[in-house]
C-alpha cells in the first residue's frame, strides 16, 4: 500500500537536520528506528533538532548545548541536569534517549502522563497516555469558572505551582509509592518548565495550558516560541519548593477533612 500524497515521506534522521522539512528546528516526529525517552523535554529537543533527531549517540555536552539553545537554561542549570543525569545513569559514553528511562535511576513511578514501569522491566514505558494528559490539563482548570478553558476556545488558562501540586498529589495516590528523592525529581521536572514558560496576564501567573498540552502530549514546542530569558537553577529550586508546599497543604487539608485531628497540629 502506498502512502497518501499528503503524508510526510518516511525518512531517516541524521544529526540535527531533517531531510524532509529541511529547516533547522522545524518539528518532525520520530521516524522508525529513532530513540525516544520518558522525558518530554528531551524528546521535544530531538523532534526539533536541538539534539540528534534520531535520539542516538548523545553526549552530556550535546544535552548541555541543546538545553541552553532550546529552553534558554543557564549554563549551571544545563550542566547540573546533564552531568548529574549521566552520573545517576552511571554512563560515561554517549547514550540513546531510551536509556535515560532506566527505572528508578532518574526515572520514577507516579509520572504525570506515563504509566508505572511494569514489574520486572528495566526501562520505563515511553508511550504517552492522552487520558492522563487530559487529567493534567483539567487539574489546571480546577477552581476556574465553568465554561472557561481550552474546550471553550480559551487559551488564557495558566498552569501554576498549585495546579502542578494538585496533579502530583493525584498521581502519587493513583500509583506505586515513590521515595523522597524521586518525589523531589518529579517536582523539579515541572519546576523547570514553569520557569521557562512563565507568562503573566493581568490577574494570573503561570504557563499556558495549551503549551503544556502540546509539549507533554505531543512533544512539540509552541509555534514560533523562542526563550525570552535565561532560566536559572535557583529559580527552579524556588518553584520546586512552591510545588512541595502546595502539596503538603493539600494533603493536610484532605487529612483534616477525613477527620484526622493530628493533621491540624
Ligand atoms: C529543560 C529541561 C527539562 C525539563 C523541563 C524536563 C521535564 C520533565 C518532565 C515534566 C517530566 C515528567 C513527565 C511525566 O511525568 O510523565 C520529565 C521526565 C523525565 N526526565 Fe526530564 N526534563 C528536563 C531535562 C531532563 C534531563 C537533562 C534529563 C536527563 C539527563 C531528564 C530525564 C528525565 C527522565 C528520566 C524522566 C522520566 C521521569 C518519570 O518517570 O516521570 N530530563 N522531564
TrEMBL record:
Protein keywords: Heme, Iron, Metal-binding, Oxidoreductase, Peroxidase
GO molecular function: metal ion binding; peroxidase activity
Annotated transmembrane regions: none
Pfam families tied to this protein: Peroxidase_2 (PF01328)
SUPFAM superfamilies: Cloroperoxidase (SSF47571)
Cofactor(s) this protein requires: heme b
Lipid metabolism is among the record's keywords: no
Matches recorded under InterPro entries: Chloroperoxidase, Chloroperoxidase-like_sf
Span of domain Heme haloperoxidase family profile: 23-238
Domain of life per record: Eukaryota
The keyword Iron belongs to this UniProt entry's keyword annotation: yes
Similarity section: Belongs to the chloroperoxidase family.
PANTHER family: PEROXIDASE STCC, STERIGMATOCYSTIN BIOSYNTHESIS PEROXIDASE STCC-RELATED
Name the record gives this protein: Chloroperoxidase
Amino acid at each position: 500500500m502506498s502512502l497518501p500524497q499528503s503524508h510526510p515521506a518516511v525518512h531517516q534522521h541524521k544529526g540535527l537536520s531533517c531531510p524532509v522539512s529541511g529547516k533547522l528546528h522545524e518539528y518532525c516526529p520520530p521516524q522508525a528506528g529513532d530513540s525516544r525517552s520518558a522525558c518530554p523535554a528531551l524528546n521535544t529537543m530531538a523532534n526539533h533538532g536541538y539534539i540528534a533527531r534520531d535520539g542516538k549517540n548523545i553526549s552530556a555536552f550535546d544535552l548541555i548545548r541543546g538545553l541552553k539553545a532550546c529552553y534558554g537554561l543557564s549554563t549551571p542549570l544545563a550542566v547540573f541536569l546533564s552531568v548529574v543525569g549521566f552520573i545517576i545513569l552511571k554512563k560515561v559514553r554517549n547514550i540513546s534517549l531510551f536509556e535515560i528511562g532506566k527505572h528508578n535511576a532518574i526515572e520514577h513511578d507516579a509520572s504525570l502522563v506515563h504509566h508505572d514501569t511494569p514489574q520486572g522491566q528495566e526501562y520505563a514505558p515511553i508511550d504517552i497516555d492522552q487520558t492522563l494528559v487530559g487529567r493534567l490539563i483539567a487539574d489546571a482548570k480546577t477552581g476556574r469558572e465553568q465554561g472557561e478553558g481550552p474546550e471553550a476556545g480559551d487559551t488564557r488558562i495558566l498552569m501554576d505551582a498549585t495546579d502542578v501540586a494538585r496533579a502530583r498529589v493525584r498521581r502519587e495516590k493513583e500509583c506505586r509509592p515513590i521515595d523522597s528523592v524521586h518525589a523531589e525529581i518529579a517536582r523539579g521536572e515541572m519546576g523547570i518548565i514553569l520557569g521557562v514558560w512563565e507568562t503573566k496576564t493581568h490577574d494570573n501567573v503561570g504557563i499556558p495550558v495549551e503549551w503544556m498540552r502540546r509539549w507533554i502530549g505531543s512533544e512539540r514546542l509552541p509555534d514560533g516560541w523562542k526563550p525570552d530569558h535565561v532560566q536559572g537553577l535557583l529559580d527552579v529550586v524556588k518553584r520546586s519548593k512552591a510545588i512541595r508546599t502546595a502539596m503538603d497543604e493539600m494533603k493536610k487539608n484532605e487529612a483534616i477533612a477525613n477527620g484526622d485531628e493530628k493533621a491540624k497540629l
